[in-house]
Specification:
heterodimer, A: mainly beta, Immunoglobulin-like, 7-stranded mixed β-sheet, 3-stranded antiparallel β-sheet, 12 strands, globular, B: mainly beta, 4-stranded antiparallel β-sheet
């Protein structure tokens, strides 16, 4: 089974702190994603990466950055956390397999971040 | 750009009743379509997906969905729901002209009552 592991389930950070959310996948997937989930807004894409050291902005990249130094690991960084970044963060990965049965995005369990 | 609209934010239903969760999308290119389920305090689990071929897709837990290209819809159905189906359901589309990202709807909260 595909496993996407997010290192922290629950975090509480102070305003202005630098925050790292780590994600590791074990299926050699090329694509990795960071989403943010808020009630009534569904999931919104922050950043994604289709290869090592490659990254693309999603719909809401402001206030975030990412790092992908190794294929299996994709980190989300909040340079200076703010209270409006309190949310659930979901990491996901998928193979490069557009029209095949492997076309699926797999999600981690999520990280609940509270910024106080 | 692609977008997804889930027409109902909340759907209450009694146990053993049928249910339909509605999803419409807009896209200028061909899309792949997905339904995910999220149980409380968990990540997203794939219910089913449409890539090509038969427009009626069967998924896990007795759910099915029908792709209707002319109406740009992908509604999710189950003929008889259980208490354990209480969860949030997300419809999503994916294309390959934007790096393969998944665009989600706002979610539908299904509440099954005894």
């Amino acid at each position: 089974d595909v496993k996407v592991t997010q290192s922290s389930r629950y975090l509480v950070k102070r305003t202005g702190e630098k925050v790292f959310l780590e994600c590791v996948q074990d299926m050699d997937h090329e694509n990795m994603f960071w989403y943010r989930q808020d009630p009534g807004l569904g999931l919104r894409l922050i950043y994604f990466s289709y290869d090592v050291k490659m990254k693309e902005k999603g719909d809401i990249p402001e206030g975030y950055s990412v790092s992908r130094e190794k294929k299996e690991r994709f980190s989300l960084i909040l340079e200076s956390a703010s209270t409006n970044q309190t949310s659930m963060y979901l990491c996901a990965s998928s193979p490069l397999a557009a029209g095949t049965r492997r076309n699926t995005i797999y999600f981690g369990e999520g990280s609940w971040l509270t910024v106080v | 750009a692609q977008s997804v609209t889930q027409l109902d934010s909340q759907v209450p239903v009694f146990e053993e009743a049928p249910v339909e969760l509605r999803c419409n999308y807009s896209s200028s290119v061909s899309v792949y379509l997905f339904w995910y389920v999220q149980y409380p305090n968990q990540g997203l689990q794939l219910l089913l997906k449409y890539l090509s071929g038969s427009t009626l897709v069967k998924g896990i837990n007795g759910f099915e969905a029908e792709f209707n290209k002319s109406q740009t819809s992908f509604h999710l159905r189950k003929p008889s729901v259980h208490i354990s189906d209480t969860a949030e359901y997300f419809c999503a589309v994916r294309t390959y002209n934007q790096g393969g990202k998944l665009i989600f709807g706002q979610g539908t909260e299904l509440s099954v009552k005894p």
